[in-house]
Amino acid sequence: MTPSDTSGSPGDARGRWSDLERPPLNATALRRGLVRPGGLWTELEVVRATGSTNTDLVTRARAGAPEGAVLIAEEQTAGRGRLDRAWTAPARSGLFFSILLRPGGAGVPTERWGWLPLLAGVAAAGALSRAAGVDTALKWPNDLLVTVAGEERKFGGILAERAGDAVVIGMGLNVSLRAGELPVPTAGSLALADAVSTDRDPLLRAVLRSIAEWYGEWRRFEGDPGASGLQEAYAAGCATLGRQVRAELPGGRERVGEAVAIDGDGRLVLATEGGVQEPVSAGDIVHLRSVPREE
User: Fold this and answer.
1) Which ranges carry the BPL/LPL catalytic domain (predicted)?
2) 3-state secondary structure of 29
3) Is the C or the N end of the chain the one with fewer CB within 10 Å?
4) Phi, then psi, of 211 in degrees rounded to 5
5) Which of 14-28, 40-54, 245-259, 276-290 has the highest mean pLDDT?
């Protein structure tokens, strides 16, 4: 992606107005509020611009960076979503950050690490619902949704990458994007969803604190999604469940059915024609329509 910095020159009235609307993050205050002895977050850095926070933090993870490292960019020039799709947003219009986790050190078996992006989604959705006053929902496997003008729209995405014994989780959240700045008409932002606050500092603190709480509970139960409450929480907040969906699978295959459950491995279970239940572990999900639930 190639977002532009709208800060402008001293003589550019539009640039000055943009700065007032989109102030930079306060790295010192964020560190003071989040990096504490005994806490999950061990270091926090805010950079003006980078290609991809995930790419940068994966490199640091392989060089031995500690669990709890947080890298935040005011602007990403090569941000990535799933399947290497571009993530486009103007500078300081959202929250673009990555976190480094080493769950193996807490005894979590690798087969449960696939729950981490779902955990990040649950944590972010809950935190933003409270801090921004906006109802948020999860679209399996890695999208966050808000309602804008009566329509569900994606305003956030999550990307998890393995780096040896570490997992780097990147998150991009549209905060103050206006309608004319959206990368596609079906995207959304907290501002367009009438958030009570678009102040990025408290929003980021809320998200990171929520991730730390959920991650601590998940580790306490050695990554068990049932015992930690994660599986139930994800299902409760997942807008995909109870809908007729089309799963676009690797290799050009498709499956259509009702999304009926999230299983113990974090997979989406589809009830296809003939009553067959089929778990989907990877793919793009298209919401087709809601399925009436029996009382």
Assistant:
1) 43-219
2) helix
3) C
4) -60, -45
5) 40-54
The answer to whether 89 touches 96, Cβ cutoff 8 Å, is yes
Q: Where are the beta strands (DSSP E) in 193-251?
A: 243-248
Radius of gyration for the chain, computed over Cα atoms and rounded to the nearest angstrom: 19
Buried b (16+ CB within 10 A) or exposed e, 223-241: bbbeebbbbebbeebbbbb
Q: pTM of the entire structure?
A: 0.90
Closest by Cα among 117, 96, 70 to 175: 96
Q: How far is CA 112 from CA 106, 209, 221, 229, 266, in A?
A: 12, 22, 11, 14, 9
Q: With beta carbons less than 8 A apart as the criterion, state whether 53 and 77 touch.
A: no
Q: How far apart are CA 96 and CA 135, in angstroms?
A: 21
Question: Which of 125, 171, 119 has the alpha carbon at shortest distance from 145?
Answer: 125
**H or E stretch at 257:** strand 254-262
pLDDT at 80 over 80: no
Q: Using the 8-state DSSP alphabet, how is residue 147 labeled?
A: E
User: Rounded CA gap, 287 and 295, in Å?
Assistant: 22
pLDDT in tens, 88-139: 689 999 999 999 999 999 999 999 999 999 999 999 999 999 999 999 999 9
Query: For residue 6, what pLDDT is reported?
Result: 33
**CB within 8 Å of 244: residues ≥ 6 apart:** 256, 257, 258, 259, 288, 289, 290, 291
- In whole angstroms, what is the distance from residue 149 CA to residue 291 CA? 22
Separation of alpha carbons 161 and 5, rounded Å: 28
Average pLDDT, the chain: 90
Indicate if the alpha-carbon torsion angle 75, 131, 137, 184 is positive or negative: negative
End-to-end CA distance of the chain: 46
